[in-house]
């Protein structure tokens, strides 16, 4: 699969478009095919580097995605599936993208 990511902090010149292996999902995860991805200012700040904060590199950009389920464990297929918030660089949910959606099933 293709990803836009960076291996070091900096300006737009550090962005690379690369092939990566399809992620292996766990029993409580789904695999999404991303059809649209929005970048926001957090992506720009993370790419540039935020003093005092550590980010796992390489880092895949794009916090806000839309797509379709590519694979879901059988036990999740008949239930509501919604993304589980993942902690971002400042501890707030929804600010991390690691190429797979962590999910939980059931009512909100």
What is the gist of this entry?
Helices cover 11% and strands 35% of the residues.
Description:
This protein is mainly beta and 108 residues long. It has one domain (2-105): Quinone Oxidoreductase, Chain A, domain 1 (Alpha-Beta Complex). It is built from 2 helices and 7 strands. It has helices at residues 41-48, 74-77, and strands at 2-6, 15-19, 29-38, 59-60, 64-71, 81-83, 101-105. It has a 4-stranded antiparallel sheet with strand order 5-3-7-6, with no helix packed on it. Strands 2-1-4 form a 3-stranded antiparallel sheet, with no helix packed on it. The longest helix is centred in the middle third of the chain and has 8 residues, at 41-48. It starts with a strand and ends with a strand. Mean pLDDT is 76; it is low at 90-108.
Q: What is the topological layout?
A:
Blueprint: E1 2-6, E2 15-19, E3 29-38, H1 41-48, E4 59-60, E5 64-71, H2 74-77, E6 81-83, E7 101-105
Antiparallel strand pairs: 1-2, 1-4, 3-5, 3-7, 6-7
